[in-house]
Amino acid sequence: MATFDIAGLYPGTFNQATGVFRITEAFIPFAYSYSDANGSVVGGDQLVGDANDGVGPFTDTYVGSVNGHWVVYNETDGYALATTTANPYPGGITAVVDQTTPFIFCFAAGTAIATPGGEVAVEALSPGDLVLTDDGRAVAVTFVGRQTLAAFFLPEERSLVRVAAGALGDGLPKRDLVLTGDHALLLEGVLVNAGALVNGTTIARVARAELPDRFTVYHVETAAHDVILAEGVPAETFMDAKGRERFDNHADYVPPPGAARKIEHAAPRVTAPRQVPARVLARIAASPDGRALAA
């Protein structure tokens, strides 16, 4: 069970044809929490809400997200933007709602993360532990996010990605690397989402039938948007751009002293197969049993 804290609501309208939400009324402060059974929130999910003042339970339908906030609907009140911070849009907003992307971008349990003392399974890391970056620095973990998912509710096209051992060349990854499709790897100077690398052979979606009924994925956060080593492969650390509140253990996060707003890693990001640079495709094709993505 995952819970997500809400600070308040903007009533608004949602155009189903265009996918556009528009704020129509002033912000309403209303502190409450949503709970979701499987931890992977997608359009149409039923969310159970309970307010801090004892109001509830009540049920809303999740429509999609806008900048990490949620568009929700119920028959009594209509559409609203439920925000994780108080009044983030005092001037209002009109925005296209992301109705397709669940919040999942993590490592599978058992993923070996490089530390100064050797490799450690991601789930065994704790805040304060040191991990190694791709440029050889030792940096402290500030948070290890956990998200529990149910395989039944996970769309096949959003399932985990398995990068076979050696599929990226130079013997990497050292062992099969399993992570979510939106988690980026630093390859040839470019942050490439794992889902963009899927070729159906050496890099493939994990069939839902192979997954346990319920499983947990993990993300590592450091003070900066760093690149650490997962099964030897450079992989990004957590960047709080999609809402920390969706982690099961988000309430455990303690900002490090003097924490400032992070600057995203300077490397360009690739999210779609058609954007993958030729040099990355060549690297995959040159690996033992490698296969280039379809042109």
Describe this structure in words.
- InterPro entries: Hedgehog/Intein_dom, Hint_dom_sf.
- This is Hint domain-containing protein.
- This protein is mainly beta and 295 residues long.
- It has two domains: 2-96, no CATH class; 107-286, Beta Complex (Endonuclease - Pi-scei, Chain A, domain 1), CATH 2.170.16.10.
- The chain is built from one helix and 22 strands.
- The protein has one helix at 278-286; strands spanning 2-15, 20-23, 28-36, 46-51, 58-66, 69-74, 78-83, 94-96, 107-108, 112-115, 118-121, 130-132, 138-150, 161-163, 177-179, 184-187, 190-193, 203-205, 214-222, 227-230, 233-236, 269-270.
- It has a six-stranded antiparallel β-barrel with strand order 1-3-4-5-6-7.
- The longest helix has 9 residues, at 278-286.
- It is globular.
Main traits of this protein?
about 300 residues, mainly beta, Endonuclease - Pi-scei, Chain A, domain 1, about 40% strand, globular
Quick recap:
The chain is mostly beta strands.
Topology summary:
Elements: E1 2-15, E2 20-23, E3 28-36, E4 46-51, E5 58-66, E6 69-74, E7 78-83, E8 94-96, E9 107-108, E10 112-115, E11 118-121, E12 130-132, E13 138-150, E14 161-163, E15 177-179, E16 184-187, E17 190-193, E18 203-205, E19 214-222, E20 227-230, E21 233-236, E22 269-270, H1 278-286
Parallel strand pairs: 17-22
Antiparallel strand pairs: 1-2, 1-3, 1-7, 2-8, 3-4, 4-5, 5-6, 6-7, 9-19, 10-11, 12-13, 13-19, 14-15, 14-18, 16-17, 20-21
